Amino acid sequence: MCPQRDSADGVSVRQINSDLQHAHLELVSAHCAIHQLRLHYSADDLARFGRRDVLRKSAQAASALNEFYSSLEKKSPPAEPAPAPLQPTQQQVAQAVEWLSSYLRVERDRYFPAAGELSRQLKASMSPYFSPALLDEIRVIELQGARVEVPAFFAQARALGFDPPEITHMDSLTFLDVLVFNQHISERALFHGLVHAVQIRDLGVERYSELWIHSFIKTRTHFTVPLEVHAFSLASKFLRPSLEKFSVEESVFRWIEDGRYDTPPGNTASAGISVPPPR
């Protein structure tokens, strides 16, 4: 295999795979958004109350994508049967928890000296949802495209059959009390990152890492980890036009008390995700 070789018609194989990977990441993002819809609303409510034109266009886009990728799959050489997913040993799980907790601490110390306080404007927009004490403690930094480095232990995770998150394409990452933005700060990414900051503060970095790793082993997808589900769902609630304000810290406390961060996804009732009434 030679990724730099050009095909017969002069098309760069490297460029093909770069564009294919970019499209894949966009699909993963769309998958995540759809997952949030399924968590919040039943199919009946979406069909009954959703805008007809949006539903129709979304269905057409999904059908076109399915048809396109199905045609590519038919033209591709037969793939070898995928091996059964490997199950890590207890020792490997403990090592992964240690890797993650150490990574969060090391990156926090790395970015903290260059990070700054939240602006007065951002504090004002977040203050109905987070305590002043938390917002005063948080530090933020914009990399403006420089990207957070991929941790070395991701290679070991892939060797075990896991697909770690594409962190270089994420809007932000939370390293304890330091929020690092790969591009620029957006309110949605800031809100999501602040939820994780509350989770880490209240759970402790070791417990947070343990819950994240154990859930990821079960689900194999980062956005179905309950810690991520909660952050995504609260950020979605924050963005919905409503006069309702809510306390993220109270919500995180309830999830900890009820053990909801241990709950596998797939059952919204047992996961404690409420379905808001149709608007």
Question: What does this protein structure show overall?
Answer:
With 279 residues, the chain is mainly α. It has 2 domains: 13-75; 90-262, no CATH class. It is built from 11 helices and 4 strands; from the N terminus they run ααααβααβαββαααα. It has a 4-stranded mixed sheet. Helix 4 (90-111) packs across helix 9, helix 8 crosses helix 9 and helix 8 (187-203) crosses helix 10. The model is unreliable at 1-5 and 265-279 (pLDDT under 50).
Short description:
The chain has 279 residues and is mainly alpha-helical. It has helices spanning 13-40, 43-49, 52-75, 90-111, 120-126, 132-137, 154-159, 187-203, 205-219, 226-239, 248-258; strands at 116-117, 139-142, 172-175, 178-181. The protein has two domains: 13-75; 90-262, no CATH class.
Compile the SSE list and pairings.
Elements: H1 13-40, H2 43-49, H3 52-75, H4 90-111, E1 116-117, H5 120-126, H6 132-137, E2 139-142, H7 154-159, E3 172-175, E4 178-181, H8 187-203, H9 205-219, H10 226-239, H11 248-258
Parallel strand pairs: 2-4
Antiparallel strand pairs: 1-2, 3-4
Helix pairs in contact: 4-9, 8-9, 8-10, 8-11
Multimeric state: single chain
Cα gyration radius (Å): 21 Å
Counting DSSP H or I runs of 4 or more residues, the number of helices is: 11
**Lateral arrangement of strands in the main beta sheet:** 1-2-4-3
Report low-confidence residues grouped into runs of 5 or more. 1-5, 265-279
Provide the succession of SSEs: HHHHEHHEHEEHHHH
Annotation, overall tally of beta strands: 4
The class by helix and strand makeup works out as mainly alpha
Helix content: 55-70%
Shape: globular
Mean pLDDT: 79
Q: Major β-sheet, in short?
A: 4 strands, mixed
- The portion of residues forming beta strands comes to 5-15%
- What is the total number of structural domains? 2
